[in-house]
Amino acid sequence: MPIVKRPKLMKKADIAPFLQAISLGNETPRTELDYETPFTLLCAVVMSAQTTDVAVNKVGKTLFAVAPDPASMVKLGAEGVGRHIRSIGLWQAKARNLVALSALLIERHQGAVPSDRAALEALPGVGRKTANVVLNEVFGEATMAVDTHIFRLGNRTGLAPGANVRVVENGLVERIPPAMLRPAHHWLILHGRYVCKARKPECWRCAGAEFCVYKPKTAAP
Question: Per-domain residue ranges for the chain?
């Protein structure tokens, strides 16, 4: 029988020190998406799929100036929304989803963003990751929204290896100390975005490198 390699795991005792190290004193992190209300955050996260936060913030500035709530988003319509977000990927589908989810918020939730996962995931364009972001950022729940950065770190560092995002999410929720789980969502995203990069991790400037199982560590250029 072929030998199946088991993924390396970061030691349980090293998880809290690793997270403390990469937090860099940022004890109360928040998303880099610009938003004023739960509704504008929900819309921003829907728009962020396969697009950078910087790009979403740029289009969101003009979109939310004219459509800051569900009623005005519905009134603007998909074509009107599209005029504001053409520069981001999948803009046509996203425009339709923003209008459709706004209509459902009015119909089912009196225009408010629900704090219930099932209700969030029932909205057009809202999947588990988007719901986790909203629940974490707006409602203070200890959720873990696994994006490309967190998926990479879960596997590369040994925090919670897994073949798909749900396995990584479950592993992180199980292994990260409960008191650190909510901010860890943001710490891991930021660390993956700016230090533990996809093409080449910058181990030489990683404050948590000593706890990470990735080998060999990269050296400074």
Answer: 12-29+143-211, 38-137
Decide: 159 and 10 in contact? Cβ < 8 Å: yes
Q: Give me 187's structure tokens.
A: 């710490």
Q: Is 129 a catalytic residue?
A: yes
- Whole-structure pTM value: 0.90
Please determine, looking at this structure, whether the domain spanning 12-29+143-211 carries the CATH number 3.30.450.20: no
**Could you tell me which of 161, 191, 139, 196 has the C-alpha nearest to residue 22?**
191
Whether 147 sits among the annotated catalytic residues: the reply is yes
CATH code of the region 38-137: 1.10.340.30
Indicate if 38-137 has the same CATH topology as 12-29+143-211: no
Catalytic residue among 14, 53, 94, 147: 147
Buried b or exposed e, range 177-213, using 16+ CB within 10 angstroms? eeebbbbbbbbbbbbbbebbeeeebbbeebebbebbe
* pLDDT tens digits along 82-130: 999 999 999 999 999 999 999 999 999 999 999 999 999 999 999 999 9
Query: Which of left, alpha, beta for 144 (phi over 0: left; psi -120 to 50: alpha)?
Result: beta
> 14, 53, 94, 129: which is the annotated catalytic residue?
129
pLDDT digits (tens, 9 = 90+) for 149-164: 999 999 999 999 999 9
